[in-house]
Amino acid sequence: MPFYGVKKGFRPGVYKDWPSCQASVKKYTNAVYKKFSTEEEAWEFVKGTTSTTTREDSTASRTDQARSPPPFSHADNSQNTPSTPYQPRKASSAPASQETSPDGALTFEAIGMLRATARALRATAEQLLGGVENLSSQIDQLAGSLHSSGSTPAKAAFAATGGVKDHLKRSYSDYTSLGGAGGSWNDAKGGDGNVPVKKQKTMKLDPSGGTDCGFTGTPFADYEGTTVYTDGCSTDNGFATAKAGIGVYWGPRHPDNASERLPGRQTNNRAEIHAAVFAVHQAKVKGIKNLILHTDSQFLINGITKWILNWKRNGWKLSSGGDVINREDFEKLDQEIKGMNIKWMHVRGHCGIEGNEAADKLANAGAKKPLV
């Protein structure tokens, strides 16, 4: 078993392991220390009766061979000078308990444990998000069955998932909103996919609210972009009676604000995705190159900025092996954003953010319109 003698360091004495010794000499100017095979040799070194190993030159080391403190203890708090080689230089930022603790490696071990814990938490979070994605897909499939059958057993099965769905929705916004594929986007006004908008200057909204969740396209500064809020809704989401709408908000009384009924399957996730499709299409027609898009759907943001890359590589399959329910919707959005630079911002829904509240009202109004 090795022993480490510290002649000059934060805590002079003999240590039985390297981390403790390292904590006493690391970042200590001109520390003097050495490894020995026996404890007796280590104490002889500390007391100055053997040769030294030091970070300073040998002449300076020899001047420090004088008094020896008791093991794992310190002398008084006077300044650390060559005439008092065993006075530890007190680190002003260290707690008193660490200053007197014999375990000199406490701080470094604690940091290592914290880093390991952080890595474990990050891995757990990634697994949890993957589980939420899988659960969302399973609920999507159940909703599809319910949508087509409208039977009492299907409604009962859907109701059985309600508690889990509501809990996850509170925690992860729209991860568990019931979505579904089917139906390409046709503009509710023209029916040809072209959004009738006027080419005029777009009013600026405050882009500072929300959490930056990344870019598609080339990053840009906020002052170079135009802000828009989008939202989607579906009343009786997942049932045959569902009615979905989209809302796009460019500013107060702006002529391009949109409130439309969602064609195709009436699900919340589809409404969120196609609200973004609508806004991006408007921006392209208006000649906007850099768009700051705010949405309260984390499902939408993660889908277009992260998950879609793996979906494409895996043939549009989930990690569980199931199909990506909203494939056609995300393919439409992926096609629409080409040639655009978009900063995706996540905002909390229903918490008083003006743009989000306005987009929500537009989406709810759109859901009340007839299907075209």
From TrEMBL:
GO terms for cellular component: mitochondrion. Its EC number is 3.1.26.4. Its cofactor is Mg(2+). Residues 44-102 are annotated as: Disordered. Residues 222-368 form the RNase H type-1 domain. GO terms for biological process: DNA replication, removal of RNA primer. InterPro entries: Ribosomal_bL9/RNase_H1_N, RNase_H, RNase_H1_euk, RNase_H1_N, RNase_H1_N_sf, RNaseH-like_sf, RNaseH_domain, RNaseH_sf. Keywords: Cytoplasm, Endonuclease, Hydrolase, Magnesium, Metal-binding, Nuclease. One of its GO terms (molecular function) is magnesium ion binding. Gene3D superfamilies: Ribonuclease H-like superfamily/Ribonuclease H, Ribonuclease H1, N-terminal domain. It is found in: Cytoplasm. Residues 75-86 have a biased composition (Polar residues). It catalyses: Endonucleolytic cleavage to 5'-phosphomonoester. Monomer. Endonuclease that specifically degrades the RNA of RNA-DNA hybrids. Plays a role in RNA polymerase II (RNAp II) transcription termination by degrading R-loop RNA-DNA hybrid formation at G-rich pause sites located downstream of the poly(A) site and behind the elongating RNAp II. Belongs to the RNase H family. This is Ribonuclease H1.
